[in-house]
């Protein structure tokens, strides 16, 4: 229950002008729809593959049309990994994802800054954090509404 409260707090985080990011509800909804099968199956590995696949499609598209959707998916997925890491630490368990290259910070920053996207004009960690909380909260809200986000079962 405590973990759900964390996710809900992300969903209810006040959307401030400090982040100065405009992202359409359609992009958020598409990201949630893309991630839904993995989160309904409580499968972080599948979610990681979905995000990797999203970036692969963007790399093939010269216009990089769906880069914002990939970034939204990535931001949400990384926020989930942070929550799961804390769960493992709180229970004195080994984090099974600690060695996963995809979630290392340098790789994450490289992915979300590769092409112009919603993150292009964000500077500093606090700006990135605000965008992450806003975007992650919106995706979490959709997945919670669909009964597809259970942090205790998520593996």
Task: Describe the protein in words.
About 65% of the residues lie in helices and about 0% in strands. The protein starts with a helix and ends in a 10-residue tail after the last helix. The N terminus is likely disordered. The chain has six helices and no strands. It has one domain. It is globular and about 45 Å long. About 35% of the residues are buried. It has about 160 residues and is mainly α.
Give descriptors for this structure.
disordered N terminus, mainly alpha, globular, 155 residues, 6 helices
List the helices and strands and how they pair.
Elements: H1 2-11, H2 25-40, H3 44-60, H4 67-90, H5 105-113, H6 124-145
Helix pairs in contact: 1-6, 2-3, 2-4, 2-6, 3-4, 4-6
What is the distance, rounded to the nearest whole angstrom, between the alpha carbons of the first and last residues? Answer: 17 Å
Biggest sheet overview: none
From the alpha carbons, calculate the radius of gyration and give it in angstroms: 15 Å
Please work out how many helical segments DSSP would assign.
6
Question: Structural class of the helix and strand makeup?
Answer: mainly alpha
Question: Looking at the structure, what is the overall shape?
Answer: globular
Helical amount among residues, as a percent range?
Answer: 55-70%
* Number of separate structural domains: 1
Query: How do the helices and strands follow one another from N- to C-terminus?
Result: HHHHHH
Mean pLDDT: 84
Note poorly predicted spans: 1-19
Strand tally is: 0
Strand content: under 5%
């Amino acid at each position: 229950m405590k973990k759900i409260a964390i996710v809900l707090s992300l969903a209810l985080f006040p959307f401030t002008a400090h982040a100065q990011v405009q992202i359409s509800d359609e992009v958020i909804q598409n990201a949630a729809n893309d991630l839904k099968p993995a989160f309904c199956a409580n499968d972080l590995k599948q979610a990681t593959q979905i995000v990797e696949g999203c970036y692969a499609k963007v790399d093939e598209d010269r216009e990089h049309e769906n880069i914002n959707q990939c970034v939204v998916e990535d931001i949400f997925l990384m926020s989930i990994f942070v929550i799961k890491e804390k769960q493992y630490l709180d229970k004195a368990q080994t984090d099974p994802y600690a060695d996963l290259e995809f979630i290392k910070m340098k790789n994450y920053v490289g992915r979300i800054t590769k092409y112009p996207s919603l993150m292009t004009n964000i500077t500093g960690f606090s700006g990135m954090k605000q965008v992450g909380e806003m975007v992650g909260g919106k995706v979490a809200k959709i997945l919670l509404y669909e009964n597809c986000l259970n942090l205790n079962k998520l593996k």
